[in-house]
Amino acid sequence: MANKYTFSKTILGKLLDFRNVQTTDEARKFLKEAGYIFYIYGALILLAHLFYFKDSGYIDGLIYIACAYAIKNYQSRFMAILLNLLVITEVVITYIDYTHLGQGGHSLVIGIIVLLVSLRATQVCFNYHRLANSKIIFKNALIKNVLALIYGIAIFFIGAFIITYVIHYEADTALSYDTLKQIAYYLNFVRLVITILVMGLSYRGLLPFTKNKLICVIRNS
Predict the structure, then answer these.
(1) 213: how many CB neighbours lie within 10 A of its CB?
(2) How far apart are CA 120 and CA 124, in angstroms?
(3) At a CB cut-off of 8 Å and minimum separation 6, what does 200 contact?
(4) Is the sign of the CA dihedral 125, 127, 132, 133 positive or negative?
(5) Is residue 124 within 8 Å of residue 27, measured between CB atoms?
(6) N or C: which end of the chain has fewer CB within 10 A?
(7) Percentages helix, strand, coil for the chain, rounded to the nearest 5?
(8) pLDDT digit string (tens) for 25-52?
């Protein structure tokens, strides 16, 4: 006999099931599935703002993707909380637009679903570390964050210098002001992406002085 199809058996149904996970493997599986949801949602926001609206809203998309990576691979409680704050802010803004302008109804529904998944992911992140009995080594966490910040700031300002140089160089050509503005816009996007990637490499321990600086120790599995 075929299994009866129910909402609870769908991926979304499982993501919205707020019962506590029982094992670390169950938690990792859930966070992997939730991570893909955040990846897709972040990518849609990034592409929409980068190529259609052409504004700085793509930063939200990058944050979604960064949070998704940290939640999916490291069960990061901090990034899960950050993601909640971002989603709540977007849902509130979308709700205000909907009530005053009558627009964004579909976006509001999607935002609420993502918020519920985000809240559930946060719960699972905390459950995972409780089940794993993981402990944060604050000294190593401080070193990791400081180094990531230093590398990120360095790349950010190096990128700013390069962009300034390129724009001044192109300004001597026949390119219009709007074209130069568009070049600067996309160069700023590339600069921000590289900055985030460099900070991520620092957290992975792949940059100088960041190797073997573990954020936490998992004592039990």
Answers:
(1) 18
(2) 6
(3) 66, 69
(4) positive
(5) yes
(6) N
(7) 75, 5, 20
(8) 999 999 999 999 999 999 999 999 999 9
Question: What token pair was written down for 200?
Answer: 């991520």
Q: How far apart are CA 122 and CA 88, in angstroms?
A: 13
End-to-end CA distance of the chain: 37
Q: Are 118 and 87 in contact (CB under 8 A)?
A: yes
Q: Give the rounded distance of the alpha carbon of 83 from its chain centre.
A: 7
User: 123-141 pLDDT, tens per residue?
Assistant: 999 999 899 888 877 888 8
Question: Length of the chain in residues, anyone?
Answer: 221
With b for 16 or more beta-carbon neighbours within 10 A and e for fewer, the 102-120 pattern comes to: eebeebbeebebbbebbbb
Position 108, amino acid: L
Place of tokens 């600086």: 213
> Pairing between strand 216-218 and 134-136?
antiparallel
The DSSP secondary-structure symbol of 136 reads: E
**C-alpha–C-alpha distance, residues 33 and 152, integer Å:** 29
Residues with Cβ within 8 Å of 205's Cβ and at least 6 positions away in sequence, in order, are 211, 212, 213
Provide the token pair at 116.
Answer: 């519920």
Alpha-carbon distance values, 211 to 53, 67, 139, 140, 220 (Å): 40, 22, 14, 11, 23
CA atoms within a 13 Å half-sphere pointing along the CA-CB vector of 90: 27
